[in-house]
From TrEMBL:
<feature type="domain" description="N-acetyltransferase">
    <location>
        <begin position="2"/>
        <end position="152"/>
    </location>
</feature>
<keyword id="KW-0808">Transferase</keyword>
<dbReference type="InterPro" id="IPR000182">
    <property type="entry name" value="GNAT_dom"/>
</dbReference>
<dbReference type="Pfam" id="PF13508">
    <property type="entry name" value="Acetyltransf_7"/>
</dbReference>
<protein>
    <recommendedName>
        <fullName>N-acetyltransferase domain-containing protein</fullName>
    </recommendedName>
</protein>
<dbReference type="InterPro" id="IPR050832">
    <property type="entry name" value="Bact_Acetyltransf"/>
</dbReference>
<dbReference type="InterPro" id="IPR016181">
    <property type="entry name" value="Acyl_CoA_acyltransferase"/>
</dbReference>
<keyword id="KW-0012">Acyltransferase</keyword>
Length: 152
């Protein structure tokens, strides 16, 4: 991995592609996913304005993103082809450094790979629930979730 750096507006389309294709690859069961155009609009107009985001690069290409907002880890995505090489760990290190009071996040119960990863980097299950609307990865009404928390 080359670097983890703060995201800026010029990264919007590449971040949207990471989110879109990672979601498509890792959660094919998730209904109501956004189109790539919707993800590009949301990344440019919402994500980069309402969160603090960082990107991970390999050979100058963005392969991962983490975004934080008010104590929440609102986005954590790594391209499928970049998983298993420490990208997610580096992004979590940044998230923890930037959130000295701790972090919370929601994960889909069916996303076993993400849950194993979160637990391996120190997140603990708080409770299980059902989402009732928009979720980080798309429209997930009725999809069972797990709330996780990391405390330093």
């Amino acid at each position: 991995m080359d670097d983890v750096r703060r995201a800026d507006a010029s990264d919007a389309h590449a971040i949207a592609e990471v989110i879109h294709y990672s979601t498509e690859d890792s959660m094919p069961w998730l209904g109501g996913r956004n189109t790539i155009e919707e993800d590009r609009w949301w990344t440019s107009n919402v994500l980069l304005h309402k969160t603090k985001a960082w990107v991970a690069t390999v050979d100058g290409n963005i392969v991962g993103v983490v975004a934080l907002h008010d104590g929440w880890l609102s986005q954590l995505f790594v391209r499928t082809t970049a998983q298993g090489f420490g990208v997610g760990h580096r992004l979590i290190e940044v998230a923890k450094r930037e959130s000295p009071e701790g972090l919370r996040l929601w994960a889909f119960q069916r996303n076993a790979v993400a849950i194993r990863f979160l637990e391996s980097v120190g997140f603990s299950l708080v409770r299980e629930a059902w989402s009732t609307g928009r979720h980080a990865a798309g429209d997930a009404e009725g999809e069972p979730d797990k709330l996780y928390r990391w405390v330093p």
